[in-house]
Please model this.
Amino acid sequence: MAPGIGARSPWQAATIAAIVPRTGRVASFLLTPERPFAFRAGQHVDVRLTAPDGYQAQRSYSIANAPEDAAAVELAIERLEDGEVSPYFHDVAAVGDRIELRGPIGGHFVWTADDGGPLVLVGGGSGVVPLMSMLRHRARAASRVPALLLLSARTWDEVIFRDELLALHDRRDGFELVLALTREPARRAADFGRRIDRPMAAAILARLPEPARSAFVCGANPFVAAATEGLLAAGVPAAIVRTERYGQ
Model:
């Protein structure tokens, strides 16, 4: 049975092995579960925190690392001021702490190198996390499947995994990174300084060597709706577009 398909896995303890700052509001937390598990790029886990009085808070977070690096689970968590879980990770959690998680979860929003391409990825803010897992998997598999990531962020400094994405782009192995900065001008000639819209979707699709075979869109609800509309208007068949929404 493929990871994440069928009965949901039980809760287990995991230890925070490392904390890596990504932006001013996002950090990666590398968790080592007591029972390591296989997963596919694009899947997620549930995290549960329990207060001393017994109150529990639970959230779902996408896995950022490649399936080939399954000894730890990387969660890139954005601090939300009104959140119940993210402030704990950013203000309280420390290396060595233990939390509860279960996973992997999800069988729809997944991609493997064997699925081929061209592959179109569209992310908004922290919606890049499951897409990053796909790109890391592509790199680890030494795949040359054409792939393009259109990533929207408010500013250059708020691009999660920016340096790693730029390095993947510079490998010139069929992957292209396009940034859409919404609160400052573009810094690279091929990027944009506005929100994702229909003309932008059409422009990035024209950079592919052939029509897309798979498209994945991830982000907050309004972003996913707008980005998906842009792809469909640009001629991407609805049947190949998969979406994942963050309810924030």
In short: The chain has two domains: 12-105, 113-246. DSSP finds five helices and eleven strands in the chain. The domain at 12-105 is CATH 2.40.30.10 (Elongation Factor Tu (Ef-tu); domain 3). The two ends are 32 Å apart (CA to CA).
